[in-house]
Each structure stands twice: as C-alpha cells, then as structure tokens.
Design goal:
The protein is α/β, with parallel strands linked by helices and 337 residues long. It has helices spanning 16-24, 83-91, 108-116, 157-170, 182-188, 202-213, 234-244, 271-282, 303-317, 330-336, and strands at residues 2-6, 28-33, 54-55, 66-69, 95-98, 121-123, 144-150, 175-178, 219-222, 248-254, 259-260, 263-267, 289-296, 321-322. Helix content is 31%, strand content 19%.
C-alpha cells in the first residue's frame, strides 16, 4: 500500500509513529508531511529507513492509498492545523489511518467525506468491545514471553522489540510479536491498543493476545508501553507487565536521559532502582528477571562514543546491552533465548 505520513513540525525526533512505519512497515511511503522541513528528504535525517520527499501539505502528495497520522502527541489529541490535510486526503478518496486518542470516525466532517468518497477511516486506538479482565493464564502458553520495559516513555521500546524479534528470527528462532501501541498495530496489522483500554481490562487485553499467539511460537516479544515511574502512564506499564506474565524483561533506556519527557521535574531513578522496581512488581504475579538492556544512542555522534554509552549502561544494569539499531544484538539475544 502506498501512503503519505503526516508529521507536521515533529519529524523525525518527535514523530516516532512515522519513523516506525518508515523502518518496519510494509507500506510504500511516498511522502512525509512536515511544514518545517518541506523540500528536504527523509534521508537527510535518517539513513537506515526507506527514503521519501518531505512536503508541506497533502496537496503536494502524489497518488497514494492512505494518509497516516504519524505523530503521537502527549494525550493523543487532534491538532486542528491538520484538518485541511485530512480533509484533502478524504476528498481524494484516500483512506486515513490514525493512532490518536481523538477518533476521526467520530468527527462529523471526516465521516461525511469518507462516505461521499468511498474511503475508510481506521482509528487504530479504538479497542474492540469484547475485552474482559485477566484470568491470570498467560503463563499457560507454550511460548516464553519477553517484554520490553522502559525508564521512560519514548525511549525505544517498540524499536527494541522489533529489532530483537527480527534478530531472533534471523538466528532461526520461532518468534512472534505482540503489539500493544498504535505504531506496532499499524505495522503488524493487528493488536490491542493497551493505553486506550478500560483500566480493569488492561491486563486482560494483553492476555488475550498472548493466548491467541502463544502456542504458535517458541518466543513472544511483547511491546512495552510507558514506564513504571511515569506519573501519567505507569498504569499501562503495570497492566502489560502483569497481563503478559513475562518470563524475561529487557530494560530500554535513552542515553543521557535524566528526566521524564514532558514531566521534567521528575528525575529518573538509578538503573539499579529500575531493576528492583520491575522485578519486585512482577514477582507476585509471575516472577520475571531483567536479563538484558537496550539503549537508544541516536543522540550520540560517532560509534566510538555510542559504544562507550552501551558499555556504561551494561555496567549499571549488570547484564548485556546494546543499541539494536546501531550495533548487533548477539549477546542480548543469547541472554534472551
């Protein structure tokens, strides 16, 4: 499918959905919409993903099948400055795919245009109606459950999950993916949007996916969300941890990060404290151990300095670690598999 991705004023640093699709999805990306970078190209910023031109608005996009909202702002709201691009896409008969908490299919104008032009709106974060509480049975599946957890939101949990998944497959392991967020769902085409689920059903929504795929693979790599210390998102983190009944955890961190994104008055605890927090919280439901780490070194220039950051993180963590985008994941996979 050919798509355009809306990432106004956020590409690439704060447009993780856009970057995730460029790196991992089967979509052919024909253009990125970003008013601030019009006339440039994806390759001017990212070298390890498919390339595409950056344009200022939907009117500048060639024929595509769909427009994807490629931004995940805090709170998941819809910016009215995007309305003209969504309107143009629907008028051209393009489907619209959105991972916002604001459901486009509940917007009267967008619904009317979709009907008039025979196109679809997919609100990825809209959970299905049959979710229920967890029954505490995720551990009954054949697969070993590997969950990425984080020191903060937006540190690279989805990226680490997918990189480790692909590396495991390359080593011949039977491995499947459990997507829990909007980008992972867009990439894999299925999943439950855990941060939109009624709180009582959060663990159950994860368990449902584990049960669906758990006997088809030897390993399931579960995409983590948020952080156990995040003042806004910790409930989602705990729900995934308990619902998945993970066997092994991979702690994800961003090099140099000292405070929680968007809540800078909250300092990050030590890595040692994170290990204790996650393992102790998991234990009453199903004992899990942090066996490896993934560190995002994208903000560090030069592989030598990045390797230094990885080594420092390994020392703090007391377990093998890597930047799975920048370096190989052999030692980390050995600890996991």
């Amino acid at each position: 499918m050919q798509v355009a991705i809306l990432a106004h004023e956020k590409f690439p640093g704060r447009a993780k959905t856009a970057v995730g699709i460029l790196r991992y999805a089967d979509y052919e990306v024909e253009a990125i919409l970003d008013r601030d970078r019009s006339g440039e190209r994806v390759s001017d910023y990212l070298s390890d993903v498919q390339d595409a031109p950056i344009v200022s608005e939907m009117d500048d996009v060639p024929d595509v099948d769909a427009l994807v909202i490629g931004i995940a702002p805090i709170g998941g709201g819809f910016d009215e400055s995007w309305r003209s691009d969504v309107r143009t896409a629907l008028e051209r008969g393009c489907d619209v795919i959105s991972g916002l908490h604001y459901f486009l299919e509940d917007d009267d104008e967008f619904t009317r245009l979709a009907e008039e032009n025979d196109c679809d709106i997919w609100d990825v974060r809209k959970p299905h109606d049959d979710l229920t509480v967890s029954h505490g049975v995720a551990t009954d599946v054949d697969a070993e459950i590997v969950l990425t957890v984080g020191t903060d939101c937006s540190v690279g949990k989805m990226t680490a999950t997918l990189e480790l998944l692909e590396a495991a497959k390359e080593q011949g392991a039977s491995a499947g993916f459990i997507p829990t967020g909007q980008t992972g769902i867009m990439i894999d085409g299925w999943g439950n949007p855990i941060d939109r689920v009624v709180s009582d059903f959060t663990a159950g929504a994860v368990e449902e996916m584990i049960l669906e795929r758990g006997d088809d693979y030897d390993y399931l790599f579960v995409e983590g969300q948020g952080s156990i210390v995040h003042p806004a998102y910790s409930a989602v983190t705990c729900g995934i941890l308990h619902g998945s009944m993970a066997d092994k955890l991979v702690l994800c961190h961003e090099a140099g990060k000292e405070a929680i994104h968007g809540y800078e008055s909250f300092s990050l605890p030590s890595i040692e404290e994170y290990v204790s927090l996650y393992e102790n919280l998991a234990r009453p439901v199903h004992e899990a151990e942090i066996v490896a780490g993934a560190i995002n070194t994208s903000g560090i220039e030069g592989d030598g300095s990045a390797r230094g950051a990885v080594e420092s993180y390994e020392s703090e963590l007391g377990a093998p670690a890597t930047d799975p985008v920048r370096f190989d994941a052999d030692e980390v996979l050995e600890a996991i598999l």
